[in-house]
Amino acid sequence: MSAQQERTFIALKPDAVQRNLVGEVIRRFEAKGFKLVGLKLVKPSVETAEEHYAEHKGKGFYKGLVDFITSGPVVAMVWQGKGVVASARKLIGATNPLTSEPGTIRGDLAVDVGRNVIHGSDSTDSAQREISLWFKEGEIADWTPVSNAWVYEN
Ligand code: IDP
């Protein structure tokens, strides 16, 4: 992986799967020019969900959040590209979909904060932690897109 490249963890939450939004969200990341290097449909264990959301332990919405994220399958993904961590957060939009900008995933596709369709790592450190929580090493597949020269100047 070149120095410019980084990876982020993206999860399509159970509401995205139930509402048939999986293709729509993946389309946006592909169209932007990012590279998919990991993808699986999983029903997360309570342990995984609690570890993933450990920073929110003790907050009023924590139990509901863990119940929700473990309620059905989640599409867990790793996306790679230049600046992908911060850029994915912009594509996703603000946490509360009622205040997310139109044009963002949450702004266009969600209403309630507890049903906001998608998770994206908030920093490169979080991304590393979350990728190793959700994926084994052999589950990440690096490859060279033929479009590289048309997405990147150098
Ligand atoms: P983020 O997903 O935009 O990074 P965080 O503040 O890390 O936002 O919160 C994690 C998740 O917890 C949110 O995506 C949302 O699903 C849920 N959440 C956050 N705040 C609330 C709340 O006030 N009520 C219900 N759910 C919340």
UniProtKB/TrEMBL annotation:
Domain spans labelled Nucleoside diphosphate kinase-like: 5-142
Domain of life: Eukaryota
Essential cofactor(s): Mg(2+)
Entry-linked InterPro entries: NDK-like_dom, NDK-like_dom_sf, Nucleoside_diP_kinase
MF-aspect GO terms: nucleoside diphosphate kinase activity
Alphabetized UniProt keyword annotations: Kinase, Transferase
HAMAP family given in the database record: NDP_kinase (MF_00451)
Record-stated family: Belongs to the NDK family.
Name this polypeptide is given: nucleoside-diphosphate kinase
UniProt organism field: Acrasis kona
